[in-house]
Amino acid sequence: MNAVELVSSTKNQLEKFRLDGFNEFLEKVNSFCDMYELEVKKLDDEYVNPRWPRRKTNITNRHYYEYDCFNAVLDLKIQEFGNRFNEVTSKLLVCMSCLSPCDNISAFDIPNIPKLAEKYPYDFIEEEKRRFPVQLGNYFNFVKKDKKFANLDGLSSLVRLMVSTNIHVTFTLVYRLLKLVLVLSVATVERCFSAMKNVKTDLRNRIGDENLSNSCILLLDIVL
To answer: What is the spatial distance between Cα 84 and Cα 17, in angstroms, rounded to a whole number?
Structure first.
């Protein structure tokens, strides 16, 4: 949850910097140029493309450096955040965190957990989805009163304790959802390993870590 909030905050800061940050950035550039006695271009002059110095660009230096450079780089960063941490993934993580037993199930949130069940349309029928809030309320009251559930450190510990105390038979819907959440993380890791096998073949056996990581990300983006 902290990671999700940090990603969201970073995206907001980047978007704000894109809208209002160019003048502040320009002041720092000018200060750097003055310190080392470097030439500072006049922003109102026409931009000259070094590849074709005689061809008119019909844009000012300010337009080029603000829109074609400054904004373009920030747009790439913001888009990368969106691709890596899209809204669907963030909502899924938020809903998953509501099942966490840590800190005496302080994150437990009955309105959000049924939304997670909606992500598994083939695992819960409509009648089970309607019963879910009632079972969640009973589950919360039971777990809150039982001291054995007070100091758990994660979902896997919660599932093991539910099975050992046999309450997984009582709260079948909650237990099923917990199993699906645990399987989701394993499936994600399996996909990563499958992608790595496809990328790092015998012909690419000496590929570097950075190139391997970038290739796997590209392959997963295409597959998913």
So the answer is: 20
What span, in angstroms and rounded, lies between the C-alpha atoms of 192 and 185? Answer: 11
Read off the DSSP letter of residue 119.
T
DSSP string, 35-70: HTT-----TTSBP--TTSTTS---SBHHHIIIIIII
d(CA 213, CA 215): 5
User: Is the model's pLDDT at 140 over the cut of 80?
Assistant: yes
Distance CA 121, CA 110 (A): 19
Q: How far apart are CA 173 and CA 159, in angstroms?
A: 13
pLDDT tens per residue across span 23-65: 999 999 999 999 999 988 899 999 998 888 888 899 999 999 9
Report how far residue 30's alpha carbon sits from residue 38's, in angstroms, rounded to the nearest whole number.
Answer: 9
Amino acid sitting at position 153: D
The Cα 1–Cα 7 span in angstroms is 10
148: helix, coil or strand?
Answer: helix
Residue 91 C-alpha from the chain's centroid:
9
What is the rounded CA–CA span in Å between residue 101 and residue 156? 10
Alpha carbon of residue 211 to chain centroid:
21
Cβ contacts of residue 180 below 8 Å, gap of 6+? 120, 123
